[in-house]
From TrEMBL:
<feature type="disulfide bond">
    <location>
        <begin position="45"/>
        <end position="76"/>
    </location>
</feature>
<keyword id="KW-0964">Secreted</keyword>
<dbReference type="GO" id="GO:0030198">
    <property type="term" value="P:extracellular matrix organization"/>
</dbReference>
<feature type="disulfide bond">
    <location>
        <begin position="49"/>
        <end position="81"/>
    </location>
</feature>
<keyword id="KW-1015">Disulfide bond</keyword>
<protein>
    <submittedName>
        <fullName>ADAMTS like 1</fullName>
    </submittedName>
</protein>
<dbReference type="InterPro" id="IPR050439">
    <property type="entry name" value="ADAMTS_ADAMTS-like"/>
</dbReference>
<keyword id="KW-0732">Signal</keyword>
<feature type="disulfide bond">
    <location>
        <begin position="60"/>
        <end position="66"/>
    </location>
</feature>
<dbReference type="InterPro" id="IPR000884">
    <property type="entry name" value="TSP1_rpt"/>
</dbReference>
<dbReference type="InterPro" id="IPR036383">
    <property type="entry name" value="TSP1_rpt_sf"/>
</dbReference>
<dbReference type="GO" id="GO:0031012">
    <property type="term" value="C:extracellular matrix"/>
</dbReference>
<dbReference type="GO" id="GO:0005576">
    <property type="term" value="C:extracellular region"/>
</dbReference>
<feature type="signal peptide">
    <location>
        <begin position="1"/>
        <end position="28"/>
    </location>
</feature>
<dbReference type="Pfam" id="PF00090">
    <property type="entry name" value="TSP_1"/>
</dbReference>
<dbReference type="InterPro" id="IPR013273">
    <property type="entry name" value="ADAMTS/ADAMTS-like"/>
</dbReference>
Length: 181
């Protein structure tokens, strides 16, 4: 973030104005047919730390179908969780500890990095080989894989670049200084 702090005082306002105007231009092009209502407010973040997702909805105003999506997402709460918070997937598994599975209680541990369906909640009963899908999808904001920033949104693994396709600090530096540091 060093490059972001080196910026001259008047530039941030110009940069923010540029972002605002370019997002308005994109919005106008996207909605040019007038079939969509305006985007609604952003939802609460799915997590309070560790990176989550927020969404915004819009309605199709036409009696026929509208082209494009009615939902959009953005990342939020991109601050590290305290160590005592634990793993988000593990929290979701442990929430099932007080629910009987085939008449028996288990202590559930997360099964991570499933190549077939990284966004389902698969958990293993502690001390056994029993692995169960406890939910068809994990909560929004759960990492698809332990060593990745990609996150699950509505049961699908979304590549982190789709949320924010560039590093803002690097982009800022490139605009101001012609290079990243």
């Amino acid at each position: 973030m060093e490059c972001c702090r080196r910026a001259t005082p008047g530039i941030p306002l110009l940069f923010l104005a540029f972002l605002l105007l370019s997002s308005r231009a994109a919005r106008s092009e996207e909605d040019r047919d007038g079939l969509w209502d305006a985007w609604g407010p952003w939802s609460e973040c799915s997590r309070t730390c560790g990176g989550g997702a927020s969404y915004s909805l819009r309605r199709c105003l036409s009696s026929k179908s509208c082209e494009g999506r009615n939902i959009r997402y953005r990342t939020c709460s991109n601050v590290d969780c305290p160590p005592e918070a634990g793993d988000f997937r593990a929290q979701q598994c442990s929430a099932h500890n007080d629910v009987k599975h085939h008449g028996q209680f288990y202590e559930w541990l997360p099964v991570s990095n499933d190549p077939d369906n990284p966004c389902s909640l698969k958990c293993q009963a502690k001390g056994t080989a029993l692995v169960v899908e406890l939910a068809p999808k994990v909560l929004d904001g759960t990492r698809c894989y332990t060593e990745s920033l990609d996150m699950c949104i509505s049961g699908l693994c979304q590549v982190s670049a789709e949320f924010f396709p560039f590093n803002l600090c690097e982009f800022w530096c490139l605009c101001l200084h012609g290079s990243t540091i």
